[in-house]
From TrEMBL:
Domain Plastocyanin-like, first and last residues per copy: 30-143, 157-305, 407-539
Designated name of the protein: Laccase
Gene3D superfamilies (alphabetical): Cupredoxins - blue copper proteins
GO cellular component: apoplast
Species lineage: Eukaryota, Viridiplantae, Streptophyta, Embryophyta, Tracheophyta
Keyword Magnesium appears in the UniProt entry: no
Domain of life: Eukaryota
Family statement drawn from the similarity comment of this UniProt entry: Belongs to the multicopper oxidase family.
Function: Lignin degradation and detoxification of lignin-derived products.
Compartments (UniProt record): Secreted, Extracellular space, Apoplast
Cofactor field: Cu cation
Entry keyword Repeat: yes
Amino acid sequence: MESWLRILFLFACLFPAFVECRIRRYNFNVMMKTTTRLCSSKPIATVNGKFPGPTIYAREGDNVLVNVVNHVKYNVSIHWHGVRQLRTGWSDGPAYITQCPIQPGQNYVYNFTITGQRGTLFWHAHILWLRATMHGAIVILPKLGVPYPFPKPDHEAVVVLAEWWKSDTEAVINQAIKSGLAPNVSDAHTINGHPGAISNCPSQGGYTLSVDPGKSYMLRVINAALNEELFFKIAGHKMTVVEVDATYVKPFKTGTIIIAPGQTTNVIVTADKGSGKYMVAASPFMDAPIAVDNVTATATLHYSGTLASSITTLTNTPPKNATPVANNFIDSLRSLNSKKYPAKVPKKVDHSLFFTVGLGINPCSSCKQGNGSRVVASINNVTFVMPTVAILQAHFFGIKGVYTTDFPQNPPFKFNYTGTPPTNLATMSGTKVHRLPYNATVQVVLQDTGIISPENHPIHLHGFNFFAVGKGIGNFNPKTDPNNFNLIDPVERNTIGVPSGGWVAIRFRADNPGVWFMHCHLEIHTTWGLKMAFLVDNGKGPNESLLPPPKDLPKC
């Protein structure tokens, strides 16, 4: 009887809406699964044989333990995207930054506590291009008895947006690295793993969200795509935005949201049409002359009682270069900044950093298709080189020769960043980090460059949330632009788009000791080297130091 009660309690703990548990345990078995999309099949790397992978449910304050067992030929690591990981950098997940990867046949238990966060985040592989199919939602509910700061929806649903290649994604990127050129774009976008109706594959099904008339639904929308920002809209329905990146915002209504890879957005939709079937669409946003997968993913909002044979009400997607539509959404985002959920924006800045982000061209004698050159990417002209020992381990154990702490806080040379590019497009290479004292307030201005092409870069910072205090087009002016910063209720995020041909300014407090990756969440740009890391020193208080590594930390 006692064992049955234990099993019942453990099962109930997987559904935190109904029970208060302090510990949530999950098993992630990484395995290959033959999957059919677009009328063709291929083996893909998955967690528990699912695409998208399983959803992790927890409450604010819960301790989460995920045992990841690697049954595939690739090295594996999992990143819990947006989870603060206070003092638990060993569980953050980026391979060779905070841990060595989990080798085939090995396992590792990620152990972290959800502190001061509630909302939608997601997890994904953080090595190679495995996150194309290895990703899933993290749903963090408020503490038991704590309401949402908006009317509670009748129902909730997770909506994961992604990309699909008919080819093996590892072969796609390996071929691109060999050639020195950009990889092939994906063959389709997906909504909860399905592209929807595709003209050259009429039997291809799509995701259906069943709704009851008059009920409200909170959609937890996640962009898990590798390389593309996406518009998301529902025919005939407005969406009320209530949260982004697991932080509450001032609610506003919109017909279209823009969501970059690495971002999440919670919207509430009221089923106010009474009956019918309505198209749900995810389509690409790209306001630069760069190739994208132009196939729109579709799903269906299906009212109960409506015949399956009924005609679906369609919607027009925005043009792929609809910058005004994207800006209208981005400019509407404001932190809730209530008494219970204040926006703690740093007013004073201890460390002011100016980072250029963009592309470059370096020599490559083996890159025949690239005529002896390869495309690279950089921050402050440094193309990051991944080490073979995890930087956090090298920091903690004092291992020399793995990294240097001389990442430049300004570009090594100035030029008209969004105008005519310099004649020399080469970058320097290195495994460089920028060191920060504990609890320092930091401002980073992220400036796009026009080298090769200006482009929107969704930059993700591990270990912290930050406030997006300003943005603009052209070159940042340090004398006049700060006068227009919003220091009252700027949106709080973990991933922010640097506008194409423009800049964005973020602020955060370095209150989390450890090594924290910052990189473009367009996977090709990360591969090309648009990444760096912050090393945050320990503080002096008892809870201001990085915890020791767990005994099962993977070895390189």
